[in-house]
Amino acid sequence: MKNIIHDSMNENCAVTSHTLADFESELPRWCKGCGDHGVLTGIQRALKKNNIDPENVVSVSGIGCSSRLPHYLRTYGFHGLHGRALPIATGVRLARPESHVLVVMGDGDCFSIGGNHWLHAIRYNINVVALVLDNNIYALTKKQASPTTPDGQLTNTTPRGTYLEPMNPLSVVMGMTNVSFLAQSATWLPNHLDATIEKAWSHHGLSFVRILQRCPVYMPQGFGDGGKNYPVVLLENEQGIPIDQTALLRGPAQPHDHTDIHAAQEVAHTSEPAPMGLIYQNERLPAYEDIRFSRTDKPRDRSDFLRRLDGTLDKFAV
Ligand SMILES: Cc1ncc(C[n+]2csc(CCOP(=O)(O)OP(=O)(O)O)c2C)c(N)n1
Ligand code: SF4
């Protein structure tokens, strides 16, 4: 699985490194122009950059277009039930604390049917990277209103337009206790998105990232025509998420202290212009497993049990 790359500066010093191909699996079946493609690439780049072995990663999802991602990433994967990605990921992390766990959810998946799990995962602060691909619609089931669908939007469940103000997931997160990492990016800001995933990967604790995602099929007009006309402000901080020139073409930069909880709550409350970048980070909070394993034993060597479990699960592999 590893490709050996020789360092031309020093022939005696062979470094072992991964290529992007090490993280590629099936050819994605998302529509042309779907923002999910860019998120997949961003994850693959972050894994490569951190030289993480694919066999040490477990990607977990619920159900939805975005939740197909584990099929396309060459790591272990668990395509779970609608809304249930976070509790599955919590179980994986507790059973295999040495593994990197990535969670991919849709807006309906996380904020609606998975809402209760979402709140408690934030409170638990389990050490996983949790990405919500928010296209403001239920896409896999062909255009029903989700909690973030804009007011007045025609959908199959609201043929006369939605009646409710959309939920602001950022202010929900900042209203919780024990928040350790909150960031926002968008699929039409590719370099910013890569840098956001990379930053989330380096954080210890629950890294919660909302990614505004283009769905050219069921929400073509979403985010001001696929992000082209969507007002954003780029949060600027030396310790935050780097801002490149292409992102600055979409909106101005604004200084922001992501360690100040009150500043973060204020920024999270703003939906227009949408804040892009690292909204809040608290590096002092222990992750749930740190607390739990300081009071209980880590999982013991259960190799025989796991061998039999693997055999059973393999029967259901697709
Ligand atoms: C318990 C349950 N309820 C409903 C469904 C039907 N269902 C499948 S995917 C989906 C919506 C997915 O939307 P979202 O989470 O926003 O993800 P997207 O497809 O937009 O990426 C629904 C309602 C289901 N599979 N299981
Ligand atoms: S329907 Fe929308 S979200 Fe689903 S794959 Fe197509 S573009 Fe992507």
UniProtKB/TrEMBL annotation:
Domain Thiamine pyrophosphate enzyme TPP-binding: 63-210
Residue stretches making up the Pyruvate ferredoxin oxidoreductase beta subunit C-terminal domain: 256-290
GO molecular function, one term: thiamine pyrophosphate binding
Keyword Oxidoreductase annotated: yes
UniProt protein name: 2-oxoglutarate oxidoreductase subunit KorB
Gene3D superfamilies: 3.40.50.970
Keywords: Oxidoreductase
Organism lineage: Bacteria, Pseudomonadati, Planctomycetota, Planctomycetia, Pirellulales
PANTHER family: 2-OXOGLUTARATE OXIDOREDUCTASE SUBUNIT KORB, 2-OXOGLUTARATE OXIDOREDUCTASE SUBUNIT KORB-RELATED
Highest taxon of the lineage: Bacteria
Gene symbol of the encoding locus: korB_2
Gene Ontology BP, a term: cellular respiration
Organism (species): Novipirellula artificiosorum
Record-listed E.C. numbers: 1.2.-.-
Matching InterPro entries: 2-oxoacid:Fd_oxidoreductase (IPR051457), PFO_beta_C (IPR032686), THDP-binding (IPR029061), TPP_enzyme_TPP-bd (IPR011766)
